[in-house]
Amino acid sequence: EPEVTQTPSHQVTQMGQEVILRCVPISNHLYFYWYRQILGQKVEFLVSFYNNEISEKSEIFDDQFSVERPDGSNFTLKIRSTKLEDSAMYFCASSRDGQRNEKLFFGSGTQLSVL
Amino acid sequence: DQQVKQNSPSLSVQEGRISILNCDYTNSMFDYFLWYKKYPAEGPTFLISISSIKDKNEDGRFTVFLNKSAKHLSLHIVPSQPGDSAVYFCAASEGQGAQKLVFGQGTRLTINP
What we know:
heterodimer, A: mainly beta, seven-stranded mixed β-sheet, 11 strands, B: mainly beta, six-stranded mixed β-sheet, globular
């Protein structure tokens, strides 16, 4: 089965530094997402992206966050100035057409640790 | 934010028996519900879903039941197999935000041989 690929699997950074988390969604998918899970907490929606623009975002997704599809295959999440509370597992996901009966395919995640 | 709640953090079931995982929600606008399974070091994997116009959906060993009046859904796994040991997440969405999923905390299911 096709899969969503995320790199790196682990990222350690100093507070205040910028990080970019990378994802390669499934090739024929058109909708892309970032979710995150802080240790011991729920998986939370961050942002959805379609047709090169954000379609929806949560209150977590403030000005420190941005997403981009720089080429035909990658989808990135940038955190401009990381805070301790940004430490979490970040999951990228994609779906074919964004309809409710379409499965979300998740990547294995990037564990971000902010020191 | 407790819109979707899974009250049992863990569940242990004998192989071959039925596993029942429960989920409650508070937002009456939710109209689509899903179950995801997650193994360690992997992302969540879609298992089964149900629309609010139905009260049951079945896929092989997995059945999801929806009780809208009680704002409750459950996942039944029959028979349970050791490979079913994982964390199970209930999720919900509403209307146009179809893929903006609201997740529960998860239930760790352990199937004992």
